Amino acid sequence: MSLWKALGRETLNHIGKRPGSRAVTLVMVSLAFVIFNTFLLVSWNLERLLQRELQSVRIEAFLSPELTQAEGRSLSDLVSTMNGVRSVYYVSVYEAEALFRAEMPEQERLLDLLSGQFRLPASIQVSLEPGWDNESGVRSLAAAIQGLEGVTEAVFGEEYLPGLSKTVSAFRKLLVFLGTVLAVSIALVVAYTVRLSVLQRSLTVEIMSIVGAPDWFIIAPFLAEGTLTGLAGALGGLLISVVLSGMLQGAVGHSFLPPQLFWTVVLLGGATGAVGAILGIRPGKTSDGSNNQI
Amino acid sequence: MLIEIEGASRSYGHWPALDQVTLQVAEGEFVVVSGPSGAGKTTLLRLIWMGDMPDRGFVQVAGFRSDMMKRRHFAMLRRKIGIVFQDFRLLPDRTIFDNVALPLVVSGSSSRAVRKRVFSLLALMGLSHRRNSYPHQLSGGEQQRVAIARAMAAHPLILLADEPTGNLDPEASTKVIQHLIDINRGGTAVVMATHDPRRIPPGSARFLFLDGGRLTNAESWQDLEETR
Fold it and tell me: Exposed, middle or buried by CB within 10 Å (0-12, 13-18, 19+), for B118?
């Protein structure tokens, strides 16, 4: 029998023991992952919303009334050569007025009254290259356009984008904090379970050590226990999250986690479980100073 | 020398379990360490299999020296030592076959080699018919013979027996001691700790007396009686 085959048998034999306490640990780890998944889901959906908003963002550069239509068009050509600009559309004074009348028919009379003293300004509508559709990209391009001679103002929806960005950023920070707290909690729960296992199997551990089993051979089943508990807990948490997400879909429209995030959560579970197992099998000291663990 | 202990002391708190013990055991020797309960016999054996380390002095066993041991050396040393305990320490959830096979399994022996060695040892101990039983289904004497078979599975250089007859009736004790003598005749050094050395036939072993952590030599168990 090869050592690996023996190790496989040993691990299976080990994992088949104490189904009751293993189930309790699994439920606790799963519930911790449900909390984590909920925040991850909210954060990811907010992030998607922000991305969608950013992708639809246009910079609108209003031109000085002194500029002629030819000067406005040449300024528009200049903007189209700038980095990050995908396309530009020049909106003349006349077109701006026509658009206003079409989009706000109730305000048409006001425009007629003011037509002697006020005219809507010509503008350039700028759409962005992919990769520039983030808040800092939009902001820097808008500042560059605003710096051009003949441009009075460049706007891009700065009244709501920073707020949305901040919310997403706050959720990300909360997620990292919560993730850390939950990872530590899960690791401690797994560590406690593995330590119980070590104590319950102290005779096996002692005999294995006495008959010359290498350390890794003795430790591996406990590591496997912790890692599998973490993996199964993460999968259990995801399963519960899928069900909850489906139930809430009607009330709050959202998407579930994409496959790469799904598997990241599963891997996180495995890693947390492995860390917990390592904590659980760390040697402890007895009162006489000798090791009482593996 | 197979075992060399030089000025080894071990204390637990303020209690000196062993005090300046010096001992040499040659290959193929049979050494009986006697003494009352709490004399330090188990501690001495623990130092030999390096389940514990001396506070002072050193222990050298089969080329492994206590003050130069690295973590990986412990497994290597213990494959050269077989250990038998008073309470047998068989794994209750495994069959007799699996218990005896354990030292071979953890050293990566082939299934064929494991089967051959385990069947041979069980036959030697008169336990072939019990190979699929579990420890709790066996008598104390049978369990101790299983423990001896397990200790001998990996062809150790040294067999340590800590009060191997302590939990057995006289008949079973005699059988177990005879097995230890046979094993020693096969060339394996045996160090046996017992509070009752009278069961060992005169001339078959070197007798040592341990009390209050101090070791003294004796020619026979009768000498030990006088020492006491």
Answer: buried
Q: Which residue among B83, B110, B150 sits closest to A1, beta carbon to beta carbon?
A: B110
Residue A114 pLDDT greater than 80, yes or no:
no
What's the half-sphere exposure (Cβ side, CA atoms, 13 Å) at A6? 22
ipTM for this prediction? 0.87
- Nearest residue of chain A to residue B79 (CA atoms): A212
pLDDT of residue B223: 64
A206–B contact, CB cutoff 8 A: yes
Q: Where are the domains of chain A?
A: 2-52+163-292, 58-156
What's CA B205's distance to the chain center, in Å?
A: 14
**CB half-sphere exposure, A67, CA atoms < 13 A:** 25
Host H or E run for residue A70 = helix A69-80
- How large is the average pLDDT for residues B89-96? 94
Interchain CB contact of A217 with B (< 8 Å): yes
Which of A78-82, A158-162, B90-94, B218-222 is predicted with the least confidence, judged by mean pLDDT? B218-222
What's the whole-model pTM score?
A: 0.72
Interface A–B counts its CB contacts (< 8 A) at: 63
B24-63 confidence digits (pLDDT tens):
999 999 999 998 888 899 999 999 999 999 999 999 999 9
Answer for the pair B17, B43: CB distance below 8 angstroms, yes or no: yes
Q: For the domain with range A58-156, which CATH number is right: 3.40.50.1820, 3.30.70.3040, 2.60.40.10, 3.40.50.1980?
A: 3.30.70.3040
Apex CA A10: angle with CA B114 and CA A215, to 5°? 90
Q: Does B152 touch chain A (CB under 8 A)?
A: no
For chain B, the average pLDDT equals 91
Chain A hits for B75, Cβ within 8 Å: 209, 212-215
